[in-house]
Amino acid sequence: MIRLLASPAHRLAALGLLLLAVTVGALAIQVPGADTVGAAPQSNAFIGVVAVGLAVYLLAVRLVLRERLPRAALWTILGIAVLLRAALLPALPFLSTDIYRYVWDGQVQAAGINPYRYIPADPALERLRDPAVYPLINRKDYARTIYPPAAQLVFAAVGQVSHSVTGMKLAMLGFEALGMLAMLAVLRGAGLPSARILIYAWNPLALWSFARDGHVDAVAIGLLGIALLARTRRRYGLAGALLGAATLVKVLPVAVAPAFVRGGRLWRPMLAGVAVIAVLYLPYLAAGPNVFGFAGGYGAEEGYDTGVGYWLLAGLGHLGLSPRACCGPTWSAPD
């Protein structure tokens, strides 16, 4: 056994199976169907088990960065990644309820209604309410959707074929898989080991956020991955267009914009990105100023103006190491 584990490939497989066991163990702690882990001891146990999974993940990252692995190790990495997501996929979301809004927005658009026009509780949408999704929508009594047009187009496409949370999760995992395939191509093009895809594929944050909660960031990751691949192949216009689309899923991808213009022509990706953003907004402009949804009130509600909404700042605040505004007890899952 010791000799077997002396092989980097076998150590990698052992770490993968251990991460899978830890993930399933964390699932077993949470009460099935509940939107919280449970009482404080149960919650602490869950956090402890997830922390063990994080430690296993970091050991695996260290392994792929330091050791020379055979090509077959990539199949081990991808196989474990699929098993991890398959374990989390059937479970109901509980770290975030945002996916219910995604499904709702898809249903609204399937009915031919602009999702920015009404809040979910508006009487005009009463006929669309169902017992599985509507009661679990967050902010349904006062907030229009906050999600930009690229995300809305995905919700609309899924809404044409499925009105279920599982259907939406599968769509998110599809985009994530697309992103990983693009990342593999980028790694190969850069002459780096394909095994480094593990850094993303086994990341516990991605696992719980996308396979368990179906978070829309997976769409941005898929688009951003393809955009980076286009950039490495000097397809500047396509890269800029894809980055623009990713930005209209979540604004954060714009942070990597400098990578798209370094050593290339600035105007082409910029014009393509701006054009895509304008075109994606066109189908929703009938909503007028409401086309920006709840974006205006979201920052204040989540505590981003005081710092409470940033976990790191809030944690430092509890230690007396950041401004007093960050020290409040408020906690909520980020979108």
Descriptors for this entry?
15 helices, mainly alpha, disordered C terminus, 0% strand, membrane, Glycosyltransferase 87 family protein, globular, transmembrane helix, 335 residues, transmembrane, single chain
Q: Provide a count of the helices.
A: 15
The percent range for helix content is 55-70%
- Proportion of residues in β-strands: under 5%
Tell me the total number of β-strands.
0
Q: Report the C-alpha radius of gyration, rounded.
A: 21 Å
**What's the helix-strand series?**
HHHHHHHHHHHHHHH
Residue runs with pLDDT of under 50 for 5 or more positions: 325-335
Structural class: mainly alpha
- Globular, elongated, flat, extended or rod-shaped: what is the shape? globular
The oligomerization state is single chain
What value does the average pLDDT take? 86
Largest sheet: none
Cα distance spanning the termini? 45 Å
Write the layout of secondary structure elements.
Layout: H1 2-6, H2 8-29, H3 40-66, H4 73-88, H5 98-110, H6 149-159, H7 165-189, H8 198-201, H9 204-212, H10 217-232, H11 236-247, H12 257-261, H13 267-281, H14 295-302, H15 311-318
What does this structure look like?
It comes from Methylobacterium komagatae. Keywords: Membrane, Transmembrane, Transmembrane helix. This is Glycosyltransferase 87 family protein. The protein is mainly α and 335 residues long. It has a domain of 25 residues. Helices cover 59% and strands 0% of the residues. It has 15 helices and no strands. It is globular. The protein starts with a helix and ends in a 17-residue tail after the last helix. The C terminus is likely disordered.
